[in-house]
Design brief:
alpha+beta, TATA-Binding Protein, five-stranded antiparallel β-sheet, two-stranded antiparallel sheet, 6 helices, 7 strands, 38% helix, elongated, Lipoprotein
């Protein structure tokens, strides 16, 4: 087998010409985008709010406020911390999602649902709360 050198480097076309693969597979022009797409799809599945709710530890609190009154207090505080925080209406209340920095996995998920005495508040997060934690302080401050 002869190896051809071009500009001091091994010519990949000389090596790939001896394989039975199509040209697009030899140069990875087809496989790289497909591999990246599969990787991104796998990571997106790992970072969904549903998985955060299922797998992250939960802090359960109660308030005498209605879910809408509680959200009116909490949403502006979360949006001042991260402008992309969003709220969605769910059955008997609201779900507030704080996305992670730079589009990473969700940082926090909070659900407020009505009960007989006001509302139940459930905060889901992977990271533990710290004394200076802005998110947890806002959650407790609106109770």
């Amino acid at each position: 087998m002869s190896v051809r050198f071009v500009g001091g480097f091994i010519d990949p076309d000389a090596i790939n010409a001896r394989t039975n693969l199509p040209a697009c597979a030899r140069r990875n022009t087809f496989m790289k985008p497909v591999a990246m797409l599969l990787l991104c799809a796998g990571l997106a599945a790992c970072s969904s709010p549903g998985l955060l709710k299922e797998n992250a530890p939960a802090t359960r609190l109660a308030t005498a406020r209605s879910p809408s009154t509680y959200m009116t207090c909490l949403l502006p505080q979360w949006q001042s911390y991260r402008a992309t925080a969003s709220v969605r209406e769910i059955r008997f209340g609201y779900r507030l999602l704080m996305p992670g920095a730079a589009g990473q996995a969700p940082e926090a998920l909070l659900e407020v649902t009505a009960n007989d005495a006001g509302s139940d508040v459930v905060l889901h997060r992977y990271s533990a709360t710290t004394p200076g934690d802005t998110i947890a302080r806002a959650v407790r401050g609106c109770l």
